[in-house]
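2024-03-11 09:14:02 DEBUG pipeline.ingest accepted 1 chain
2024-03-11 09:14:02 DEBUG pipeline.ingest length=160
2024-03-11 09:14:03 DEBUG pipeline.predict start
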Amino acid sequence: MHTKNPPLSTSCEHTYTKNKNHILDWVVTPDINLINNLQVMGKFKSDHKVIVFEWPFCKPKLVKRTIACRKKKIDNQALGADIQRVAENMKDDCNMNLVDIYNRKLKQLLDIHAPLKIRIARDRPSAPWMTSHTKELKTERRRAERKWRSTNLCIHKDIK
C-alpha cells in the first residue's frame, strides 16, 4: 500500500504475519523503493512471523584527525636541573634575543623529557537523540547520584 505524498509512505507485504491470518505488521519507510528482498518467515514459537528485509543504509564516514600530546608524568628533578643549567649558561650571554633563545632551549628540553606523541583519533558522529539538553540532564543526574552516594541521604536520591 502506498499513499500519495505523505511524510512517510507505508508498505505492507500482502502475506499474513500472524497465525490467525491477520496482517498486523507493517514496514514504514520514507520511500517504498528503499525496501529490498522483503520476506515473511514463520515456524517460530511466537504467534507472529518475522519480517526480514534489506535496507540500503550507509554509515557516515569516520573523520580522522591528528592529535599531538605529551606524557603526563615528567621527571621534575631532571627537568629542573636541565632548566637550571640552561639558565646558568645564558647568564653570560649579552644577546638581545635572550627570550627567543630561552624559549627555544625550553622547547628542546620539553621534547627530551616529554616527547610529543602523535596519534590518530576518529570523530564519531553523535547519536541524533543526543542533544545538548539531553547531555545537561545526564550531567545533572550524575551529579545528584554522586551527591547521594557521598551523603546517603534520601533527599539527594529523590532529585531527578
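2024-03-11 09:14:41 DEBUG pipeline.report The chain has three domains: 9-54, 63-122, 127-160.
2024-03-11 09:14:41 DEBUG pipeline.predict end
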